[in-house]
Specification:
Length: 314
């Protein structure tokens, strides 16, 4: 006996509702997977090392912005993330560096971000415009970024959107890399920095994340290996840890052949040749003054020894 028509219609409706429910569940699952995952909270019981001293490599591309280096944390300990120039995610945003802060009984990492204004970064003096409060290395003028030549390294023959403004620094310059705790900085967020923290933020770009991952995989950047003086302190481009754009920290270990690694703007071919010639000159000059080596015994002893003493007259 055939089933009534209304029963088949009801079955079709139930099947349709069930299919819609499954589809919506799948979409919801896809949305949850695609949503950005918040960064894991890094909680360490050892203070990070002091910031290394290094020079800033020249800006390679007009419009790129400087992101200072910092000490990251991995399972093997602290590792140095070299400072580098990066392309901002969009026009009008500035980079707020991350910082280590002492909270409770441990050191917690506060990740950096992009935003309309520079927020609080622990009062850490990263240099090159980051004096502990705000940013003086440049500013947006319309749709272009202008560089302050007094604190940033730009080639004016390539990058023309620059200005020169003296930076007044009322903060004591220090290499301390964390806020709070024993020996840490005592800076507190200003009213403007609190407002910046509540603004809409943009997470680090893919190139920035790749830069950190490559630094973490480099054994030479571990603090246990470089003792706070990384051989790759800064780079001209993110992720490029070799070439003329790499800058060493002051006091970094030398290469096995005893020669310092090429670093930054001072090591172009002409300067490198000049340095080699200057290193050779003192050795050649000292070699010319050195007396020739003598072989065998002297044939003519001093005549003074062969002279007989004359009797003195009384």
């Amino acid at each position: 006996m055939p089933r009534p028509t209304w029963t088949r219609l009801a079955s079709i409706k139930v099947i349709a509702v069930a299919a819609t429910t499954v589809l919506l569940s799948a979409c919801a699952a896809q949305v949850r997977v695609a949503a950005p995952v918040p960064a894991a909270v890094v909680d360490v019981d050892v203070a990070p090392p002091p910031l290394p001293v290094y020079v800033q490599p020249p800006c390679p591309v007009a419009g790129w912005m400087w992101t200072p280096g910092y000490w990251g944390w991995a399972s093997a300990g602290y590792f140095w993330v070299p400072g580098t120039w990066v392309a901002p995610p969009r026009i009008g945003v500035l980079w707020t560096p991350g910082y280590w802060g002492f909270v409770g009984r441990s050191y917690v990492w506060h990740a950096g971000y992009w935003g309309p204004h520079v927020g609080f970064y622990g009062g850490v003096h990263y240099g090159f415009g980051y004096t502990g409060v705000g940013f003086a290395g440049g500013r947006w003028v319309g749709g272009a970024f202008a560089y302050n030549r007094s604190v940033t390294n730009v080639n004016v023959t390539v990058i023309h959107n620059t200005y020169n403004e003296t930076v007044v620094n009322n903060v004591n310059v220090t290499r301390v890399s964390y806020n709070g705790g024993a020996g840490g900085l005592r800076a507190m967020p200003t009213a403007q920095e609190r407002v910046a923290e509540r603004e809409q933020h943009i997470q680090p770009t893919p190139m920035q994340r790749q830069h950190v991952q490559q630094a973490q995989r480099n054994p030479a950047l571990m603090a246990s290996a470089n003792h706070g003086h990384p051989g790759i302190a800064a780079t001209s481009r993110p992720g490029e840890f070799k070439g003329p754009g790499v800058v060493r920290a002051r006091g970094a270990a030398r290469r096995p052949n005893g020669r310092p690694a090429m670093a930054g703007r001072n090591m172009n071919p002409r300067n490198a040749a000049h340095a080699r010639n200057a290193a050779r000159r003192p050795a050649a000059k000292s070699a010319a003054r050195r007396p020739a080596a003598r072989s065998g015994a002297r044939k003519h002893p001093p005549a003074r020894r062969n002279q007989k003493r004359k009797p003195q007259k009384r």
